[in-house]
Each structure stands twice: as C-alpha cells, then as structure tokens.
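Page 37, top half.
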Amino acid sequence: MKIYFAGSIRGGRKDAELYRKVIAALKEKHQVLTEHVGDLSLSTMEDKGDKAIYEQDTAWLRECDVVVAECTQVSLGVGYELAYAEAHNKEVHIFYRPNETQLSAMLSGDDYFHIHRYNDEKDILTQVRALWG
C-alpha cells in the first residue's frame, strides 16, 4: 500500500522525531511516499521552490492509497493536504494529542476522516501498526 504521511514542515518541526518514528513504523509493511517529512535535517524553508513542492505533493496525494496525518502541530499545508485527499476520495487517518491541541472542527466535524487520539509516542506507534494489520 502507498501511504502519504502528512506532518508539519513550515508550521514548525517540533514533532519531526515523532514523524520519523511513525514513518518507520509505516514502512515496516508499506511504501511511504513522503519519507522526507520525518527527516530531522529538513528545513522549514525547503529550497525546491513552492511550485515544485506543490506539484510533487499533489501528485503523491493522487498516487497514494491512504493518507496518515499527524495534526498536533497546526499546519495550513497539512489542512490543505487533508482537503485535497478528501476531494480525491482517499482514505484519511488523522492522529493528534488532545492534551496539547484542540483539533479543528473542520476535521473533527467531518465524518469522512478517521480521527485517532493518542497520548504519547508508544500509543501512536501501536495504533499506526494496528491500522492495516
């Protein structure tokens, strides 16, 4: 299965290490198209150019089978990716830590999305690994 992992880049890299671990867990059985999101050296200001980033990311979103998003760190880009995925009928799983953020009503109020709350790293890794057995 091809997975598009979405996590904050320009919105902040506070959870980059967690993204790296979630991506590694997903890669145990699946292909992750967006491994770079978990790259700890990734800058908040990528140098590829905005147009190229948009074109690559939307191509990956169209190609993927499912989207997994970590939404604790607020990101306009991730929000856009989620709406794009829904518009293209992609299965979407959203993870967030409710003790650190309140998920946007535009996500939590949309029955299309599969919402997963978690408390810590161990919790999210267990949930991610259980998604597709």
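Page 37, bottom half:
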Amino acid sequence: MQKNRLGNSALEVSQIGLGCMSLGTNEHNARDIVKRALELGVNYFDTADLYDLGENEKIVGNALRGQRDNVILATKAGNRWIPGQDGWEWDPSKKHIHSAIKDSLHRLKTDYIDLYQLHGGTIEDPTDETIDAFEELKKEGLIREYGISSIRPNVIKRFIENSSIISVMMQFSMLDNRPEEWLELFQTHNVGIIARGPLAKGLLSDEWNEKLKTKYAGKGYMDYSDKDLSEILPKLKDIIGDRSLEAAAFHYCLSQPSVAAVIPGASSIEQLEANVRAIQKYEFSIGEMKQLQGLLKQTVYKEHRQ
C-alpha cells in the first residue's frame, strides 16, 4: 500500500485509511475488519470520542492491540456529552480538551495519539485557547500532531494561519469538490487533506444507477439534481471504461497534491476489500483526471467564508 506524508509532519499514512465510524458495535465483526485492513496494508485508522459515545474508540483500541507501533491512530474531540441527557454540546475549551484526551487514551488503550483533531469548530470559538490546548498536549507527549475536521473555510483558514496543524479532514469527492477552491492555501502552508466521503454516499460507485432510482430519486446530491446525476454519471463511466467508478473517485481525490489519504468507511470485510482493490488495481492518467474534472460542476462553499 502506497503511503503519503501527511502535511509537513513525519506521519506516513496509507493512501486509503479506515473511517472507523462505520464499524458498528459488534466487536467481533469490527475486529475482523480491522485485522483484514492491516493485512491489506492500511495503517491509518480514524475514530472519534463522539462515535457511539466512546464505544467506537474502545472497539478500535481492542482491535489494534499488539499493533500500536504499526499504525497511525487518529481520533477527535470537541463534542461533550452530558450523562443522562440526549445529544451533546460543543466545547472547544482547553479544560475539555485536556479532559477528553485522557478519556480517549484510556478507551484506545494507548499512551499517545498520532493525530488528534478538533471535531468541528465555529468562528466564535476561543481559537487561541483551543490551539494552546493542542500545543500543550504535544509538549506533554500525549499527541504527536494535531489537525481539524471541518468544512467551514473561515475556521479552517484561521487554524492554518495561526497554528501548527498538519491536516484538515473534510468532505471531498468528485460531486463535492468545494475544497478545490482552497487548495492553494493548503499547499502554501503544507497542510494535508484527509478526504472523507470520497464515494459521495455511494453515488460514485458501480451501484450508482440503483442509488439514483431509490435513495436519490427526486432529491439529488449537493449542487446536482437527480436529473443532473442521471446525465453526468454515465459520462463519467464512459471515460473510465471497465474500471470501477470507486477507483476513479478515490484517485480523483488523491490526484490533488494536498490530499494524503481518502477514508471511506467499511462495515464488512467485503466492502473493505473492494475499496482497497479499487485503489490498487486501477490507474488513471493526468489526462483522464482532467477529462473527469471537465464534466463536473465547480462547487464552492456558500457559507462560513468570512
């Protein structure tokens, strides 16, 4: 499995990682998926304290037992739930982050986190305080690096320009190419992108036709109506021929210099193997990537710009 450097850090992540949120709560099934991912060369595993109220971190920690030195382990913080109440509260304070890391380390059964990410963010946040918290955790050796998971450009820009983040996790796919407007900023500051949602909820898969008839009938996706999708998806397939649409979707994201990894989820070994096979079996030329790009709408973030 090819590995890419994440931003300006020393972290080398497999070009396809495992988004652990989709593992579910069946620990036996999750352990088998993680084990198979390791066998296939996946070394980047991404979870969050929010997933299943911490249970996902516990499951991932158990599944990675004995493999800690062989993986890049990432988790997130910033969402605080209160026992006995539904939902959670946003809390990017230093006090909460220092508390949250201790809980995550305990659940993950590790002494350090490779990549600790702020799980969201608003322009009204006490950003300096949040940055101080992450920097202190680095000095204490509890985390190796930190980043942010966000789709708000004003928040991302503030962190890129005022902190030492190495990465931004953001939704990015051929059908949601909003990050492309900001790629120069990422490249200038040598910040890596971790692309989540590269398959656009299954529309960029070889099951696209069935998805259009059922889940997206009359609804569309992002800036695309269902009519738009019914026209553009066959054209994408014409360009890639007998190669899978999943492969094109993954390679499209990875063709951007700032993108270090794509992290599709996998709720079964079969799904995991299909994802890895798609990224390893097929190749695309620069010309083909430009052809694909030429068919797409250039979408932009319409909110949270200033």
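Margin note: The chain has a mean pLDDT of 94.
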